[in-house]
Amino acid sequence: MATDSNYGAFMEKFILPPSSSSPGLPLSSLTFAVKELFDVEGHVTGFGNPDWARTHPVASSTAPAISALLNAGATCVGTTVMDEMAYSINGENVHYGTPRNPCAADRVPGGSSSGSAVAVGAKLVDFSIGTDTGGSVRVPSSYCGIFGFRPSHGAVSTSGVVPLAQSFDTVGWFARDPVILSRVGRVLLQLPEVTPIRPTRIIIADDCFQRSSIPHNLVAETFSKAVQKLYGDDVLKHEILGDYVKVRVPSLRHFMTDNSQSDQVYNIPSLAALSSAMRLLERYEFKNNHGEWVSTVKPDIGPGISERVSDALRATGENIDLCRSVKEEMRDALSSLLGDFGVLVIPTVPGPPPKLGTNAPELEIFRAKAFALLSIAGVSGLCQVSVPMGMHEDLPVSISLVAAHGADRFLLNLTERLYDLLKQDIVPASL
Q1: 61 among known catalytic residues
Q2: Considering 88, 112, 116, 128, which one is annotated as catalytic?
Q3: Would you call 112 a catalytic residue per the annotation?
Q4: In the annotation, is 20 catalytic?
Q5: Which of 9, 234, 336, 371 has a 20 to 30 A CA-CA distance from 128?
Q6: pLDDT tens across 123-143, in order?
Q7: Annotated active-site residue in 113, 114, 116, 136
Q8: Which interval of the chain is the signal sequence (predicted)?
Q9: What is the pTM of this model?
Q10: Rg of the chain's alpha carbons, rounded to an integer?
């Protein structure tokens, strides 16, 4: 068992015992850690920045999501390091250090829920809690070789959670195996047990995989073989997702560009436009949430994130209604594509985790490609799970499954069933 001193995952260690010691509770004997933007009574909610911690009082109550886990029998062992103000997907914090990726020590752990992912990947806790606005659970779960679940938008209470952008904020969670992932999901989503439902269609987004730097046979083909064994050939479908989105989300035309250089960066123009719309609305809401504090306190914010915050402070209301139209159209488009029990299969991220200290221009190109994928569920508000697919060239790889809004229980069940077959054909990470 690794210790937190080896990985730097924890911001503060303490013990919050379960509300009941009954052995019959769904999360009895499990331990978990919490991202440092959840209120925990008696502790400062630091939001990844020392100036935020300095200017905010201790929390007077605990976030409902955390209370639900304690009531279900789990023990909280502390809060974890995160990216400043949740405004990055790298996992590097200039003030508190960067948690060490347990799969690849020379690579970023992913953020902004970096410490939460590392705590699980390094076997410091059984599961952990984070938030996912633009990808902050899905990215670090992929980079650290574990499961990460972003629920349907609005499915889990965000009360007592410092917001980034409410139109996209979700409470997500990490686990090393799909059984614990499901157990946590049943508690947070307040879902009863249901009989697993056979998916009506499982759609491979061919264009997304073709542009990934991970060899196609390592992820999409391995996944397809597991689907065929479990459900037969007829359930598998293929889609050029970029073309589908371009036709079905007409408001995206306002965010499209004819710049060929931009096309090389983003790969799929319609998904690049989707990402642009998402980030515009995210900046606008970040400014509304935190602009006054930033302008008044003038906090010390690290490189990369400080530029993002400055961009947000310059945000105006221009095109915000168009962004909201894109959200509605995107959910309708994917709902039509998937139906009640369909699944869209995409890469979680466009490639393996970047190296620590990657130069800013190279990192920005990778981020742009990543957000084109992450915005699919982010904008539509659908649920998504990142599934570890083992190691390739000593680096973790993953795949993501996206299901309809409200189909979280279905997606968790499907992940459990498929992973029993998938794990037979993948190279596991070893600590």
Answers
A1: no
A2: 112
A3: yes
A4: no
A5: 371
A6: 999 999 999 999 999 999 999
A7: 136
A8: none
A9: 0.96
A10: 20
